[in-house]
Amino acid sequence: MAAVGGTAVQDHVALAEIELCGELIIAASAARERLSLESIDEVLRVSEERNQDSAP
Questions:
Q1: pLDDT tens series, the chain, 56 aa
Q2: What is the pTM of this model?
Q3: More exposed terminus of the chain, fewer Cβ within 10 Å: N or C?
């Protein structure tokens, strides 16, 4: 909830998590079957995160 007076606090981590949850919900609702772990990782961009962590 934003404070009175217009000074809103943004939690960028929380906003990113909400966006990823939304993408996961969309993928799950579009799927005909349960999402595999690989599909979930793809939606959540887990492999991209791992590649960035291992970069020099």
A1: 555 555 666 788 889 899 999 999 999 999 999 999 999 999 988 876 666 666 66
A2: 0.63
A3: C
Tell me how far CA of residue 40 lies from CA of 8, 17, 24, 31, in angstroms: 32, 14, 7, 11
CA–CA distance, 15 with 11 (Å, rounded to integer): 6
CA dist 41 and 35 (Å) reads: 10
Q: With beta carbons less than 8 A apart as the criterion, state whether 27 and 39 touch.
A: yes
Question: How many other β-carbons are positioned within 10 Å of the β-carbon of residue 24?
Answer: 15
Query: Which residue shows structure tokens 């609702």?
Result: 29
CA 16 to chain centre: 6
Report whether 42 contacts 48 (CB < 8 A): no
